[in-house]
Amino acid sequence: ELIRQGEALKRTEQMVDKMDQDLKTSQKHINSIKSVWGGLVNYFKAKPPESKPEQNGAPEYYANSRLKEAMMSSKEQESKYQESHPNLRKLDNSDNDFNKADLVSSVQRDAYPKNQHLRAYHQKIDNNLDEMSSGLSRLKSLALGLQTEIEEQDDMLDRLTKKVETLDVNIKNTDRKVRQL
Predict the structure, then answer these.
(1) Is 164 part of any domain?
(2) What is the rounded distance in angstroms from the CA atom of residue 93 to the CA atom of residue 81?
(3) Is residue 155 included in any domain, yes or no?
(4) Cβ distance 57 to 159 under 8 Å?
(5) Whole-number Å distance between alpha carbons of 117 and 107
(6) What is the DSSP letter of 94?
(7) Any domain includes 96
(8) End-to-end CA distance of the chain, in Å?
(9) What is the distance between the alpha carbons of residues 177 and 35, in angstroms, rounded to a whole number?
(10) How many C-beta atoms surround the C-beta of residue 67 within 10 A?
(11) How many domains is the chain built from?
(12) What is the span of the domain harbouring residue 148?
């Protein structure tokens, strides 16, 4: 949603830049109509180069790379997350969730109790903590990406607000001049 909003902000900024160019052109025409001297000045004045709206201080919009990386990483981990999430995975009806061969090979460390059942529960807790850590890491990277994207869009909004205020003043001045004609 943030990426879509960023693209909409970029299009809005381009439209404001185009309106500003059109307003300058209309100001030239008003000067030509207003007096002969204004027409002569406009005739001999160098024509401004046609510039694209992207060149008026608004670079092409690309979503924040940090956010894109976090979204890609999140999508890659999504299937693994769904397989391991207790509410999203298919429930196994067997009493023992562990493969005993895997259990014996993976829990031979001294950190686990010697009792096989306690070892299994400790291993299950460790696995759950690893999944939680992975999920929290994913959330952190998404949050940091969102924060950066929001900051960039906030800067874009500030820039757009200044342009719109300037354009509003120029439109009012041009409207006043047209009414005087």
Answers:
(1) yes
(2) 20
(3) yes
(4) yes
(5) 11
(6) S
(7) no
(8) 47
(9) 12
(10) 22
(11) 1
(12) 1-17+114-180
Residue that the structure tokens 């686990």 belong to? 112
CA angle 62, 5, 79 (to 5 degrees): 75
Q: What would you report as the CA-atom Rg of the chain, rounded to the nearest whole angstrom?
A: 31
Based on the number of CB atoms within 10 Å of its own CB, is 60 exposed (0-12), middle (13-18) or buried (19 or more)? exposed
Whether residue 156 lies inside any domain: the answer is yes
User: Phi-psi bin for 57: left (phi > 0), alpha (psi -120 to 50), beta?
Assistant: left
Q: Determine the pLDDT at residue 91.
A: 45
Tell the burial category of 86 from Cβ atoms under 10 Å away from its Cβ (0-12, 13-18, 19+).
exposed
> At what angle are helices 2-34 and 116-180 packed, to 10 degrees?
10
Do 173 and 112 contact (CB within 8 A), yes or no?
no
Task: Please write the tens of the pLDDT for every residue from 73-109.
Answer: 777 777 666 666 665 555 444 444 444 444 444 444 5
User: How many residues are given for the chain?
Assistant: 181
**Alpha helix (H) ranges present in 35-115?**
36-44, 65-84, 100-106
Decide if 24 contacts 48 (C-beta within 8 A).
yes
- Coil vs helix vs strand at 109: coil
- The rounded distance, in Å, linking the Cα atoms of 90 and 122 is 23
The DSSP code for 53 is G
The Cα–Cα gap between 30 and 133 comes to 66
pTM of the model: 0.55
